[in-house]
Specification:
By secondary structure, the protein is α/β, with parallel strands linked by helices. It has helices at 16-26, 39-52, 67-75, 105-133, 154-173, 193-197, 202-208, 217-228, and strands at 7-11, 31-36, 56-61, 86-89, 137-141, 180-186, 238-241. The protein has a single domain (7-187, 216-241), classed as 3-Layer(aba) Sandwich (Rossmann fold), CATH 3.40.50.720. The protein has a seven-stranded parallel sheet, with helices on both faces. Helix 1 (16-26) packs across helix 8 (217-228) and helix 3 (67-75) packs parallel to helix 4. The longest helix has 29 residues, at 105-133.
Length: 256
């Protein structure tokens, strides 16, 4: 399936998996609709995507936690960008790593507002158009954390369990249409994820990946690209992947 000229909407596109996914689709000649909160970083990604071969790039300064901002962004798209073919619902984050009974409520709210509500707001704004046009593919960035809860991560894991349920429910709800729905659920991926989780503490973030060879944003982008280029009658429901150093969220082999 050719992606040349297809409109691909990627949230959380300013760094990490989102930016890597933008480059992967750019290399296929897609037209990229990129959204993120960090406008400066997003501009850098957009420029790089054009160098990688994107037909065109349209950027949106967007915080998915605001349902009004999400709907307005979709409603106000220029006509040439309105018919989104592929949505990569990637925006998400983790904050803090404390026991549930000592966690910061502000961290909980940011994760819930981004990872669950933001996911819903974007899907609600984009999917109706796909159903009407009878074409489209939604890719949700999940996590292995949505399958097995790990200590000191209950709320983050809960948000990813919710993302999994939302993704599965959406697949059921579009049954009878050609719209496809896929969840990509990785284990440890070395991006700014841990730096964000630990509020900028680089030392703590580095320890997460110590002694292992983690997945990269490019690894995840490669899987997303594979999923959306299957024949149109094939729907990849879920892809779960880890590095060879990880069996699940609780079992990780670290080299000395």
């Amino acid at each position: 399936m050719s992606l040349k000229g297809k409109i691909v909407f990627i949230t959380g596109a300013s760094a990490g998996i989102g930016a890597a996914t933008a480059m992967a689709f750019a290399g296929e000649g897609a037209r990229l609709l990129l959204a993120a909160r960090r406008a400066g970083k997003l501009a850098e990604v957009a420029s790089k995507a054009l160098e990688y071969g994107a037909q065109a790039v349209h950027s949106i300064d967007l915080d998915v936690r605001s349902r009004h901002a999400v709907q307005r962004a979709i409603d106000e798209l220029p006509p040439a960008w309105a018919e989104i073919d592929i949505l990569v619902n990637n925006a998400g984050l983790s904050r803090g790593m404390e026991k549930l009974y000592t966690g910061r409520i502000e961290d909980w709210e940011e994760m819930i507002d981004t990872n669950i509500k933001g996911l819903l707001y974007v899907a609600r704004a984009v999917v109706p158009g796909m159903v009407v046009r009878e074409r489209g593919h939604v890719v949700t960035l999940g996590s292995m954390a949505g399958e097995i809860v790990y200590p000191n991560g209950a709320v983050y894991c809960a948000t990813k369990a919710a993302a999994r349920a939302i993704n599965d429910g959406l697949r059921e709800d579009v049954l009878g249409t050609p719209v496809r729905v896929t969840s990509v659920d990785p284990g440890l991926v070395e991006t700014d994820f841990s730096l964000v989780r630990f509020h900028g503490d680089a030392g703590k973030a580095a320890k997460v990946y110590k002694g292992i060879t983690p997945l990269t944003g490019e690894d995840i982008a490669d899987v997303i690209l594979w999923a959306v280029t299957r024949p149109e009658h094939v729907n990849i429901a879920r892809v779960s992947l880890t590095s060879v150093n990880q069996a699940n969220t609780l079992l990780i082999h670290r080299e000395p």
